Amino acid sequence: MPEHHADAGLIVPPLLSVCAAGLLEHVDALADELFRTITAEIVPYAQASDEIRADVRDFNERNLHEQLTCMAHRRPVRTETTRQSVRRRATQGVPLDAVLHAFRIGYRLMARALIDRAKERPGTTMDDIAQASMALWSLLDAASQTVNDVYRDTLVGLARADELQRLLLLDALLTGKTADWAMLGGTAASLGLPEQGPYICVVAEHSDVTSMEQALLRCGLRSAWRPRPDGVAGMVALPDPALASSSALVHGPAVVLQAVGTAITGRAGLSPAYTRLRESADALRLATLARASLPAGTPRAVTLDHDPAAALVAAGHDLALRMAFSLLGPVLAAPDRKDLMETLTAWLDSATGSTTEIAEILYCHRNTVRNRLDRVSRLTGRSLLRPADVAALYAGVRALELQPR
Fold it and tell me: Are 111 and 136 in contact (CB under 8 A)?
């Protein structure tokens, strides 16, 4: 059996040490045989490029030399070259089972050469051969564990690097840093999106990236998302105009709106469609305005067309709020302000302006509605029959509704 060194490395028995020293003189020939066997038995290696195959041959020789040198000097068997090789193969996309198979072939050939030499030595017993074989099996087990661990860690690292690259590209697009996008080699494909638009930008509160992606995929739509402290922002690809039917193009934005609506738990805003990814920063601004046109705590997805006046108020909310307090101040100071504001809001939101309809909504008599509206008109000095005055009152009410809670 091999000895376990303090650093967890394995030291082979003296017999294998002597055999390894003699085999070091034939590393080049052993590496050639190993390369031929690997490329004959393992399809990914057989189909690899000339550059990768040359790299495999080089690592074979280096790894054999490192292993045999440690054995010959009875030092703990090192794994650095093994680790480098596994990291390289994982990066090159060689499957894990192929990498493990290659290492097993290497140990099989090395073990056969060492055992053959051991049998030729005078005085070698069957017990010596058994001990040597067990030591080599222990080395193979340790190497297989190393291959598994390093391959897995490499894939995790690659995934993290890819995700970081993806997030950097999304940040560059959504903040309008086109120079950074170009420097990072940004492409639509790197985000999993088609090269040609149209796209829609979406910004949503308290939402999950996975939920968004899955909701859109169920509708056949690809998307790319950037987590944010308050939710997510991202781009959704609409059907290609060259391939989609006119019906798909017309209803595409509506499908996105419906899909996003099923995945959110807070407010969400959608931009108008745009054609170039580099326009995403402007689209994000419009999507954010659409979201801001909803009162806080409203779990709904909307576009700018949902309430253009509310979107305009949201775009200049500080100014709109000052106007609202100036215009509605007397109403807000009245003892019955709650009833007055509730009635005014219901009237502004009404499709018909009918006092009968509003009375039904508020569970009061229509004369009560009429009296409250007359009182609002007197307190504000604004006529509910004048479009300009109605527009001002509407903007004031929306500005108050859009105050952060």
Answer: yes
Instruction: Please state, in angstroms and rounded to a whole number, the distance separating the CA atoms of residues 115 and 64.
Output: 16
Coil/strand/helix, residue 160: helix
3-state secondary structure at position 377: helix
CA 152 – CA 148 distance, rounded (Å): 6
Rounded to whole angstroms, how far apart are CA atoms 107 and 18? 17
Report the alpha-carbon distance of residue 214 to residue 122 in Å, rounded: 70
H-helix segments, 293-365? 308-315, 317-333, 337-349, 355-362
Give the span between the Cα atoms of 132 and 135, in whole angstroms.
5
Yes or no: say if 133 and 111 are a contact pair by the CB < 8 Å rule. Answer: yes
DSSP classification of residue 189 = G
pLDDT in tens, the chain (405 residues): 445 443 445 778 888 888 889 999 899 999 999 999 999 999 999 988 888 889 999 999 999 999 899 888 988 888 888 898 899 888 888 889 999 999 999 999 999 999 998 898 888 888 888 888 888 888 888 888 999 999 888 887 776 777 888 888 888 999 898 888 888 888 888 888 888 889 999 999 988 888 888 999 998 899 999 888 788 999 999 986 555 544 444 467 889 999 999 999 899 999 999 999 999 999 999 999 899 888 888 889 999 888 877 777 777 777 777 877 777 888 888 888 888 888 888 888 888 888 888 888 888 888 888 888 888 888 888 888 888 888 788 878 787 877 776
| CA 286 – CA 177 distance, rounded (Å) | 17
Q: Which two tokens stand for residue 111?
A: 């073990």
Q: Per the structure block, which two tokens stand in for 404?
A: 């952060």
Q: What are phi and psi of 269, to 5 degrees?
A: -125, 145
Helix (H) or strand (E) holding 237: strand 231-237
Which sign, positive or negative, has the C-alpha torsion 375, 378, 384, 389? negative
For residue 198, whether the previous peptide bond is cis, meaning omega lies within 30 degrees of 0, is yes
